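Q: I have 394 residues here and want to know how they pack in 3D. Can you give me a structure?
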Amino acid sequence: MNNFDVIIIGAGAAGLHCAATAGYRGKNVLLLDNAKKAGRKILISGGGRCNFTNYNIEPNAFICSNKHFVKSALSRYTQWDFIAMVDKYQIPYHEKTLGQLFCDDSAKDIVNMLESECNNANVTTQLRTEIAAITKTDDGFDITTNEGKFHTTSLVIATGGLSMPKLGATPFGYKVAQQFGLTVTETTAGLVPFTWQNNDKEDYECLSGISLPASVTCENGVNFSEDMLFTHRGLSGPVMLQVSSYWKTGEAITIDLLPSNDLQHELERAREKSPKQALKTCLNQHFPKRFIERLIELNKIDDKPLNQFNDKELVAIATYFHQWKIKPNGTEGYRTAEVTLGGVDTNELSSKTMEAKNVKGLYFIGEVVDVSGWLGGYNFQWAWASGWACGDSV
């Protein structure tokens, strides 16, 4: 049986960073994964360019049953620490919007960097390895795999959540937590597109491909403002992905389709300036033409000259666009979700080290934990921060 100081199961963002951090501290580290390649989720993230962190990392951008849990790790390994490593490897990157940082070239640059860090830290990486059993011993854990047995003092679970099963996502990490008596909070898909109700699908699927800025509010008051995208299946785009993490089944969402303008004022001004102008012509200045044409076809708005609308009617039109209500049927689920909400209960873990409070030597990091960030590099920063906190402690 081969002995290691640290065995990390899961060669994703958190696992790779944890492995290098522990390795640089002189620990004998084995990194295991069942995939053919390390960092699969990194490689497809950000459209293949990896939104690896955000300039504006704050604890309130994370969803967790204990809102204070993320503070320790995020404050000790910050976005600036990861950016410094990216700079050290001379990886070109750019800010897209809202502080989001992307590679100029390819997400492969980030994976190559992390693998280089692991190599420099003398980490042993073993892919295509299936875990058959984990057994607690007096001085650590025995790991039985298809490639033999291993023993370790510290075992780190970095196997991610349930999002994107096509990349091999499984509930493995949750099962390990439950095996050792840890609570796992309810999991669901986050950062995921919404799907239409049947009647809305008939009305709006023809608008697929249309994008426009919007401000969207959940019934609980949470609000995001960014681009919205119509799809054949429902509503997507950054703003909808953000809101999906806070939305509950059966709730409606309220969409301001013109967040930067006062449509009532615009309509009244247009009526005064060009009274015979058609409402459609005026609205086309603010919204995609195909969208307005469809609303007219559905009799959601009347197309007649502006001077044929009284003040009350213009207020109603403006309200319709500023408070467009949709009740999603659901979401597209884990298939397209960027993150899994819920996971290993943070009350079971040390916020400083990520070690299970009641199981010495057992650690959980990254997405498997009940911590989910906003869209825009926040979840990667949690992976780096939790991986570092663990790697600095094991």
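Q: Anything worth noting?
A: The CA atoms of residues 138 and 153 lie 9 Å apart. The chain is about 30% helix and 25% strand.
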